[in-house]
Amino acid sequence: MILLLAGTAEGREIAARLSGAGHRFITCTATAYGGRLLENSSAAEIISGRLDAEELAELIRNRKVQLVVDATHPYAEVATANASRACAVTATKYIRYQRPALAMPVSPLIYQVQGYSEAADQAVELADQSIFLATGVKTLSTFVTAARAAGKKLTVRVIPDPEGLRRCLELGIEPGNIVAMQGPFSTDLNKQLLIHYRADVLVTKESGTTGGTDAKLAAALDLAIPVVIIKRPPVPEGALDNIEELLAIIALYERTEIK
Q1: DSSP secondary structure string, 33-54?
Q2: Domain of 79?
Q3: Residue 28: enclosing H or E segment and its boundaries?
Q4: How would you list the strands of the sheet with 153-158, edge to edge?
Q5: Tens digits of per-residue pLDDT, 159-185?
Q6: Within this chain, do residues 120 and 144 fall inside the same structural domain, yes or no?
Q7: In the 8-state DSSP scheme, what is residue 217?
Q8: Separation CA 77–CA 82 (nearest Å)
């Protein structure tokens, strides 16, 4: 049995390819929304909700998993660390797939920073009045605190997931400043969002072409809006960034190791 840690566009593509090749697998996603996006796959089971290392190890043992494919988001450091730890304690084969990085344009309007606190400080410094945030909800409180302290308006773009929307409202973000849409978006739509919400600065992650970072950058640069980009965490050793290579390794491992 293969366990696929998904919740990304690549995770859904890998699930479809595993289905087409006749592999038996189960999937895990961090949210119920991510699980719903996989309902048309042929996964034997879809498990939604964040699992720590011990819970993942128990799942591996209970479902007799022999291979774990981690296709979580490049910024899902905790999920990747938990998966790696669970595989280590259960002696299970672990493969990390990480989407290719984006070739970053050279521009004085691009500010690359190391973490969320630095991004929040930089955004507040750059914004005259309005910050457009496209980094998700997990670290939202960092930006809310910084924006409020500086008297700046914060508009957030999140996926249309009840849990994320609830978090936005709990932090006091007005409904009119919440953009709940499933990306990625075209350059034109990104431009319209930045114009409509009168953004002085865009804050985003380096989520690659798959995550729409190229279109966000193009939109902001066309409008001469500065962009604060949070750099990716270090890539785990041995990670793959080619789906074809990943599938070839899975096929070989299943032929020789999975019984």
Answers
A1: HHHHTTTTS--SEEEES---HH
A2: 2-100+234-256
A3: strand 25-29
A4: 110-113, 227-230, 201-205, 130-134, 153-158, 178-180
A5: 888 889 999 999 999 999 999 998 899
A6: yes
A7: H
A8: 9
Q: Residue 129 CB: number of other CB atoms within 10 A?
A: 10
CA distance linking residue 235 with residue 237, whole number of Å: 6
- The reported pLDDT for the residue numbered 55 is 96
Per-residue confidence (pLDDT) for residue 258, from 0 to 100? 63
pLDDT < 50: residue spans in the chain:
none
Bridge-partner residues for 68, per DSSP?
A: 3, 94
Is residue 104 helix, strand or coil? coil
The number of distinct structural domains making up the chain is 2
Instruction: Give 11's contacts (C-beta < 8 A, 6+ positions apart).
Output: 4, 5, 27, 29, 38, 71, 72
Pairing of strands 45-48, 110-113: unpaired
Helix (H) or strand (E) segment spanning residue 193: helix 187-196
User: Nearest CA to 188 among 160, 224, 223, 158?
Assistant: 223
Q: What is the pLDDT of residue 23?
A: 92
For 219, the token pair is: 């939109």
Tally Cβ neighbours within 10 Å of residue 22.
Answer: 8
CA distance 119 to 125: 10
Give the CATH number, domain containing residue 168: 3.40.50.1980
Residue 33, pLDDT score: 82
pLDDT for the residue 41: 84
Predicted confidence at residue 61, as pLDDT, reads: 97
